[in-house]
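Predict the holo structure. Ligand: flavin-adenine dinucleotide.
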Amino acid sequence: MGLGAMGDGRSYDAIVVGVGGMGSAAVYHLARRGLRVLGLERFDVPHEQGSSHGVTRIIRLAYYEHPSYVPLLRRAYQLWRELQSALGEQLLYITGSLDVGPSESEVVRGSKLSCDLHGIEHELIDAAEIGRRWPGYRLPRGHVALHQPEGGFLLPERCVVGHVTAAQAIGAEVRARERVLGWEPRGEGVRVRTDRAEYEAGRLLVTAGPWIQELVAPLRGLAQPERQVLAWLQPTRPEHFALGRFPVFNMLVDEGRFYGFPVFGIPGFKFGCYHHLGEQVDPDTMEREPNARDEALLRAFAERYFPEGAGPTMALKSCIFTNSPDEHFTIDLHPGLPQVVFASPCSGHGFKFCSVVGEILADLAIDGETRWNLDLFRAARFSSEKS
Ligand SMILES: Cc1cc2nc3c(=O)[nH]c(=O)nc-3n(C[C@H](O)[C@H](O)[C@H](O)COP(=O)(O)OP(=O)(O)OC[C@H]3O[C@@H](n4cnc5c(N)ncnc54)[C@H](O)[C@@H]3O)c2cc1C
């Protein structure tokens, strides 16, 4: 398929800027559709400077953020399973998921609504019963949980590597340690300038995560990077935090909204707090090294709600959310430049969707449209806030 490639070694049907979670999936889906694709990544493949690292990411069908994510989630599960079969490597682990909070909270009500609307198997359980079934949890009285058996986690670094490996096997090129400095429209295509070379392509897809505002002017002020910190603490009762004995969770408590996982990959119970300390940052200058304040906030949560998971610290890592003003994704064609597609699907909940977002980005780049309803994700929803 030709989308304006020039025929020399530096011309492509499509260039993807940023080969993290979303970009690696986009490279794969574009290559699957027969395009000559180049993925450009400023760091390594994979790396720990952006949003797609830290060993595990939750995937779940019960979606309190909005029920309209559920059809995308079903397709995302299907595509992750296809990818892991193609690679012969497990990327998805099913543990069940718990969405926990006061019974009238958005987390519980929203999860229940998405399950009811979409016929998703689920069960509502009270705090005492949760403690009996999964003794690692010590929930406040009055809290309830929606249990959904298909919840689980993905391995983000392996998913990035998996998409890149599968894409390379069908002809895609990926170049790491090559930073895109800028791009401009050129006829019906684009010219892309990096710190190593210049390229031309028929289509440009920008999936630059926390750096996307630098490269997509319409997203300036609408894709705000925020520093996050993850903790892994050694459980004093490891049997209560083992894979197969501990469902992933989202939990609304007095201290905020937290999420967590069974022990996997690092010898500790892993968890984090959505929006952590609320630090809006520049990803090039932010404090990368977790500090004592980060650790204290996270340890206090574990000591209260998972006391047998709050042993010695095993690891702390920083990571970056890229938040939109309403915390829904932004996926769209560039206004006025239909050869350019951008995707900023984060706000702390995007990874599980990478597989389906890759497919959507390929649709938008090739056909200018997709069968998926993107109304929730259009950039134009913010135009009144910008003016
Ligand atoms: C702590 C934490 C916990 C999370 N937990 C979950 C979870 O449990 N479940 C879930 O679904 N989601 C979760 N998320 C959100 C999810 O991880 C993100 O939505 C997802 O990783 C975003 O992927 P991305 O491709 O947009 O960004 P990234 O993976 O960061 O990719 C962007 C890439 O672009 C590259 N790049 C940027 N600028 C340039 C340039 N100029 N030239 C070349 N390359 C460039 C970057 O180096 C990077 O590799 C979490 C996020 C964090 C930070």
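Residues 94 and 152 are 4 Å apart (CA to CA). Residues 17-23, 40-43, 49-52, 54, 57-58, 179-180, 207-211, 228, 230, 259, 272, 319-321, 345-346, 348-352 surround flavin-adenine dinucleotide (CB under 6 Å).
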